[in-house]
Design goal:
By secondary structure, this protein is of the alpha+beta class. The chain has one domain: Cytidine Deaminase, domain 2. The protein contains three helices and six strands. Strands 1, 2, 3, 4, 5 and 6 form a six-stranded mixed beta sheet that branches. The radius of gyration is 14 Å and the shape is globular. It starts with 7 loop residues before the first helix and ends in a 14-residue tail after the last strand. Bound molecules: zinc ion. The site of zinc ion has 6 residues, from helix 3.
C-alpha cells in the first residue's frame, strides 16, 4: 500500500471539516457528529456533516454527494473528522470505503497509521478484493 504525506491542502481540509462540524454539531436530535471535506482535482473543496435518520448517511456520503451535485467528478483527497478522535481524523466505515471505491478508487483518504501519524492512502487500498459492478 502506497502512503502519501499530508500537504498544506490536506491540513486545510481537516480544518474545513472541523469547522463545518462545529457549526452544525448536534449530539441530540439530529446526531451531527462527523464532519467531512473533500478536495477536487480542480482545487474546489466541499464539506458536509453526517445526517441521521432511519437510514442515515455518513459525512463522506453527504460531502461527495454535494460535490457531485455541483458537477464535480474528479476527486483528489477526502477526510472525515471529529475533534475528539486521534489527530481529529476518523477512518471511513466499510460502507463509505465501498462508495469511495466505486466513485473514485484513486482518491486519497486521510487516516491515522499504525503509529498514530496522519497519512494518505488510496481508497482502493482501504478495501482489498472490493465488490465491483458487473457490466454485461
Ligand atoms: Zn461511512
Amino acid at each position: 500500500m502506497e502512503r502519501y504525506q499530508l500537504t498544506d491542502h490536506d491540513k486545510r481540509l481537516i480544518e474545513i471539516g472541523l469547522d463545518v462540524l462545529k457549526k452544525n454539531f448536534d449530539d441530540g436530535i439530529y446526531n451531527h457528529t462527523v464532519g467531512c471535506a473533500v478536495l477536487c482535482k480542480n482545487g474546489n473543496m466541499y464539506k458536509g456533516v453526517n445526517c441521521d435518520g432511519i437510514h442515515g448517511s455518513c459525512a463522506e456520503y453527504i460531502t461527495i454527494g454535494s460535490a457531485i451535485s455541483a458537477g464535480e467528478r474528479e476527486f483528489e483527497t477526502i477526510v472525515a473528522v471529529h475533534d475528539k478522535h486521534l489527530n481529529c481524523v476518523i477512518p471511513p466505515c466499510g460502507n463509505c470505503r465501498q462508495m469511495l471505491y466505486e466513485y473514485c478508487p484513486d482518491i486519497k483518504v486521510i487516516v491515522n497509521d499504525e503509529k498514530g501519524q496522519l497519512i494518505k492512502v488510496k481508497a482502493r487500498d482501504l478495501l482489498p478484493f472490493a465488490w465491483e459492478p458487473v457490466i454485461c
